[in-house]
């Protein structure tokens, strides 16, 4: 692995390799960071300055870190993609923020400021807005990459200190439709109800709308091992991706028709007598209504809607049902639609009707996207939730969390706006915004409109590791610590709670998000209740989540370190009849925030250890829950619930003016809005910019040549990028990756039409026209 230098006084938290996790996707691949001391001797190669991703040791090499594989970690078993391997490049002071910035009224420019001034400006901006316009005029926007501790503290800060209901996060754009369908069918939302290792051992996997080979490459091995063991892989995607190339059967439906496809498969299951009647009778409810809905979607109709031939539909049903065990895994393809909840519900119906749920090596699962997309929505930064995945409008949940926070239940605000609706209200109902770990100017749908709304705010404060496009609009920008510089927990797509450890101290001018919230809370009258220490926050999170659907009360830093992660739900203990007097987890006392301007030492020790949990007689630690639903589902009656859903068109269908469909997605070498990966030279060489993928027939009709600039125009705006002509996409569809700002910003064009249940925007399908663009 290449050495990545880190400039400045960056003394490592330990001289030994530090076990941690990749900062990017929801796999949270295990890795170790090995501190490399400075070397003043002669070099042996070119300067591998941060951001160029090259190897070699320059003369007078600065100290830094290098990535070391962790083969023993069970999720990735040592494998890393290029993003993970080059992740330390963004730690360099050359590409990151290292001091607070404040916009000066006289120049209108962001200029360096002290921490005292920056925090004072934010506190005044938030407090004065609340006084003038009401508490809900202040908004908070979080991110799916924040640790559990940060997500918890941010939600608490919004509701207790600011008293606002207006908080949501960019994870709403990730898997909220799958989460809603999970809740509706099973009574509980966890991305995968089983470990990833089970995927390699099942008989058939239907992978819907996921390009694992590019979005999370280390996970592709599970599909390879599945096939090597004799299992079958069906991939559903309008493009022939690298993942689809591995499939035994590739179904390429028209974008926006995944719901019809799932219903057509269920129709064939019924018609061919493949329903597991005993399972349906014993462990489900609502089958007659779901069956009637599916029978209205006969194969020939589904072929007309989706473009998938009837013989391929029949082949898919045979492969899925003939296997002794089967799984359906979905990702953003079917979820990022205005009917995403119903679409996922239809795929769950297929699992339930065939008895492929609540049994070993079978079931429905969602491949979460963001690093902490799972944990981020469990502990309070989502508009309608409290810690432990409790509902904000549930009186019992409000009472429990209010008691932990030391406030009255009636003082907690109610549910607020969803992510896009919150962004759409900026500059109108919401006049000030605190944003942490998100770049909506690139990642939100109808992005030009969102940009105008951000610009219309009276006050915007952003905490980030780099000067993102959104941060560049802010009145105050705070430089915060990165993944390798702070300790905290993440919850991966399996529901495995992991420990990310600090390997380096932050640069002198950088602070942690928890430290920032602690300092702001103190300025706004809450000198206690917002500790800056991550483990102390986690101890409070354990108490707040206790008894909730996402119960973390039995999880400690010690257990995570010893067990390579703990699966939730994990209550503190398993009760026995003689368990009277068993002690609960000791609450961590709230402490006053540290001096908000003192230079930080190591954020937390590299191998944090909690004291042993106190256990009373007759109780023993809960082992965690790697596999859900084997005995019962999490509904009131223990039965899974069918969803009686029917196909409906996308919010925006092609017409004479906009005759082509656009779908969007990710590429191998970039991540999300690209705020970090676009600062890594090796990744930029592999994926230097946006493009428009289109079929040769469409290119010929438009007179577009390979590499020529082409404009993709929708009712919301125009994006321009070079043409990439390929037979791997349907002739009626074009594809754009969404990682870039500027003229090639794909989300300028996308549709913010919302799913009525999940409030997920319809990123994955909209009507466009293509035009040759000037060079």
Automatic annotation (TrEMBL):
Query: What protein name does the entry list?
Result: Molybdopterin oxidoreductase family protein
- So which domain of life are we looking at? Bacteria
Alphabetical list of InterPro entries matching this protein: Asp_de-COase-like_dom_sf (IPR009010), MoPterin_dinucl-bd_dom (IPR006657), Mopterin_OxRdtase (IPR006656), Mopterin_OxRdtase_4Fe-4S_dom (IPR006963), Prok_molybdopt-oxidoreductase (IPR050123)
Comp. bias intervals (Acidic residues): 41-50
Low complexity bias spans: 581-595
Comp. bias regions, Gly residues: 51-63
One Pfam match, given by its short name, reads Molydop_binding
The annotated regions of Pro residues compositional bias extend over 596-614
List residues of the 4Fe-4S Mo/W bis-MGD-type domain.
15-93
Its keywords, alphabetically, are: 4Fe-4S, Iron, Iron-sulfur, Metal-binding
